[in-house]
Amino acid sequence: MITPYNDEYFMKQAYQEALKAYEIGEIPVGAIVVANNQILARAHNLTEQLTDVTAHAEIQAITAAANFLGGKYLHGCTLYVTLEPCVMCGGALYWSQIDKVVFAARDEKRGAGRLSENIYHPKTLVTNGIMAEECGDLMKQFFAERR
Questions:
Q1: What mean pLDDT is reported for the chain?
Q2: What pTM was computed for the model?
C-alpha cells in the first residue's frame, strides 16, 4: 500500500510550524507529534511570546500530545522537529518515553547529541537529516536578519 505519510511529509508539517515562529519573531523551530499517521500536536517556539525559556517547540508539542492522549507517556508516538533538540528538550523526551525522534538540522552549539548520544530513552529511535538544508537555511536567514 502506498501512503503519502512518511518522514518527509511529517517534517514538512513541522517546517510549517517553524515558519509560524519565524513570522512572529521567534527562533524558527517547529515540532509535531504523530501517532498512527495522525498529527496529535503542533507547536513552535514561544519563548519570546510567553517570556518563558522552557517554551521550546518540543516542550509545547510534548505537553499538547500528552494532554491529547490523557497521559504522560508518548508510547507509539514520533516527534518531528526542525532542529536537533537541546539538552532540556532531550531530557523531556527521555521522560516521555517517546518511540521515535526525527530532527532535520543538527544544532552544533546546543544540540543534545553533542553532549551524549544516550540522552534519549534507550528504546527511542533517533534519526535526522530529513529537510536539513531547508530547516538550516531558515535558521540562518532568521539570525542573519537580526545581526
A1: 93
A2: 0.94
